[in-house]
Specification:
Elements (H helix, E strand, L loop, with lengths): L3 E6 L3 E7 L7 E2 L9 E2 L1 E4 L5 E3 L1 H7 L6 E3 L13 H8 L5 E3 L4 E8 L7 E8 H16 L10 E6 L5 H14 L2 E7 H9 L11 E8 L4 E9 L2 E11 L3 H20 L7 H17 L5 E10 L2 E8 H29 L8 E5 L6 H10 L4 E3 L7 H10 L23 E5 L9 E4 L7 E8 L9 E6 L2 E6 L12 E10 L5 E7 L1
Parallel strand pairs: 1-11, 11-12, 13-18, 18-19
Antiparallel strand pairs: 1-2, 2-3, 2-4, 5-6, 5-7, 8-9, 9-10, 13-14, 14-15, 16-17, 20-21, 20-23, 22-25, 23-24, 25-26
Helix pairs in contact: 3-4, 5-10, 6-7, 6-8, 8-9
Length: 507
Amino acid sequence: MWPRFGIKVGNSTLCIAQVKPTDTKPDVIANKQGDRTSQACLLWDGMDEIECGLTANQKMSSKPKQAVANSFQLLKDAQDITEEFLAKARKAIPCEYDGEKQKFVLKAAQPTDNDEDKEVTKEMSAFEVQVKLFESELELAKQYHNEAGKPTVVLSIPSYYSDKSWSLLAQAAEKAGFHVAQIVDEPTAAILAYGIGEEVSNDESKFVWTIKCGGLYSHFALYEVRHGLYTKIECFGPFPIGGQQFTEELVKFICEEFQRKYKLDPHESRRSLAKIRTAAANCKHILTTLPSTQLYIDSLMDGVDFNVQMSRARFESLIQPVINSFMQTLGENVDKALKNHPRVKKIDSIVLLGATTQIPKLQSAISARYPDAEVNSSISADEVVAVGCARQTLFLEDSERQILEASEECECVEEEVTIWHGTPDDDADAQKLLNPGDVLPKTVVLNIKLKETSLGSETFQLRFGSQTVEVNVHKAESSIEGEGFVRLEAEIEKAENSAPLVRLKCI
């Protein structure tokens, strides 16, 4: 069943790539507008039609109540959607969202015989929205897939999504008409796209750091690559720094300029703000490749147009505070990863993914911060995940019988492991030693807070699932003197009873 396909699924965009067994590099499929990525939004016309992609995005500013955007963040189990998360998510959604029903509420005006429009509504879950978006990608796939049966696809998903979301994503693609052979997380797919480590013949490990900055969130991960085997050592995020934050800086500039010139405040009109955000997002993408562009908004407010020449240098000065914040977050997490894993002496390679990492100023900041690392950016950052997913299909022996299940060869932690100092019941300061899905063996270094009530004790508690085990560790002279902490190094391997075997020592 060839060709096979890889799809990158995101809040802002979708991208699909195809590959044949003789290809060494997959090809990204352009949509009917000629774009290599499609907008992950849809618009309901108030009747029976639902448009997806660019046309929906273009009409969204004038018909926000009929549009759904940034829906992928809500493809989660109800237990994973907290009030705090929902409050933030609503800010990126143009239409209304019913938190109790977990459905988008689309509203449109429908003409009647008495010349008065009536309001009609349509409710859609995040799952139903994802099915519609996959159906639009299926149309692109069928241009190249002429055989009977469903096209085989490998999907991507962010590392921090729960198992329930993985299942929902697979079900949505299957319902749309794909055969889902595998799902891989985004950082793994990005490394696959470049084939890092596949040609290395020696026994030395190569450490790869992936940097994702998408439409809404950023995320970092550290991998060890050895003999073509990718092992995820650590991941960080998501952090609320993404393309939307960069766009908002440009939105602020446009609002201030318009108010200064015409004494009109666009903040008073939701429609005007929607127009500004659409124009600002387009301008941002253009300036990633061109030195300047004309920023024009027709009838922005009260019939007044807005027109200004925007240079890349001017844009970069506006977004500098966001870049500084991003680089600070990045640096803190790189330092944390190197501290937690002493055997990782340096980052050998960096892989960029997410459309926002295509901003030249951001790429320059990353290269300057880590001059000894090879920065992989030759594949477009908003296409690299789809390319990696498509490459993964080349390694499927029998895609028709491929089912989504954990690899028996991969030794992973089944349940969370926590550690604390003191008695079994005094676990208020417990810290995570391992997360479910962590690959073993693994070495972790943690700074453990000492209980004042148990300062003379050398007893630590380890909890795996519902089991708590008492461990005595000789407290050597602490490297964190006078602060009430002790530094422990844990060497963790897989035990025969499926529980991890943990060896602790004070360093």
